[in-house]
Amino acid sequence: MLFALVAVTAVLGSSKMRGVISLLLGLAIGIVGIDSLTGQPRATFGLPLLSDGIDIVVIAVAVFALGEALWVAAHLRRRPADVIPVGRPWMGRDDWRRSWKPWLRGTAYGFPFGALPAGGAELPTFLSYITEKKLSKHPEDFGKGAIEGVAGPEAANNASAAGTLVPMLSLGLPTNATAAVMLTAFVSYGIQPGPTLFDKEPLLIWTLIASLFIGNFLLLALNLPLAPLWAKLLRTPRPYLYAGILFFATLGAYAVNLQPLDLILLLVFGLMGLMMRRFGLPVLPLIIGVILGPRIERQLRQSLQLGGGEWSSLFTEPVAIVTYALMALLLLAPLVLRVMNRSEESLLIVEDDKDQKQKASQS
């Protein structure tokens, strides 16, 4: 999780200060709720409904959907509407060429995170998008329909969903809500997940694996014919389109806990998303901070308890040492590349000066 937090620095954009501010905002929002160790309320403002924290769905919907809708509404009359052409639903040769590498990289991100107890689909999806944007020769196309920005994160999301079956079936450890529901169904039928499940219930295991292929095939069969229909929704006049977005965003946020407080939080974080857009603060670090903050705190405390309260226990495991080395590499690589580029530029300047002096002496 620390490695993921360091990796998110790649999305901080040109202004590192703004990115760090956004990340700290996310970490601050993540501490809201009851302290799992001491049982003390933190930043709940005396509201019992905040004891369980703020649901990530409410925050994501508010910042992405509500904040974006408010931003567009604020500029509705200043900027003419862009007519988005509806293309063909089938991938062309150029689309295949641009997609197969993001597919592989997204899968490499998604499956390990899905198999980890502290994983999930959010982190590999964001990391895949960041990676494709960094590797792209045309990063300015991202946010405007670049196929790499869709292929990689979708592959990471799908691979993460498959990876959640690994700890659930082999250890009985659910890593997300869907796996928890499946585990509950298994227990209700008297099926106990664990290392012996593959020997006792081979038919069930292979049925689950086959369901992954069947589900992806049905998604493909349904989405390809309906893709032009979904794309034509973007031709809806913007006032009606964004009114519908606000309605369904509000409905989705309320449906999480069926609490009126979530609607107030939706409005507050929606205004915060608008202000972040206004002052150029990136949104992704905030979301990842909200997701990772409570997990990092909980896992840090568990690690210290297992190590008898000794901080040295965090630096003695081989896996930890390799992870710290990768984190240092991520942090130092941009600095090294920047120094190398400056040295190359200085050498070019020196060579140009020599050439000019030689030409002057010859003349």
TrEMBL record:
Domain annotation DUF112: ranges: 1-288
Protein's UniProt keywords contain RNA-binding: no
Organism domain of life: Bacteria
Keywords annotated in UniProt: Membrane, Transmembrane, Transmembrane helix
Transmembrane segments: 54-74, 171-191, 203-227, 239-257, 263-293, 314-337
One Pfam family per UniProt: TctA
Name of the protein described by the UniProt record: DUF112 domain-containing protein
Annotated organism of origin: Mycolicibacterium poriferae
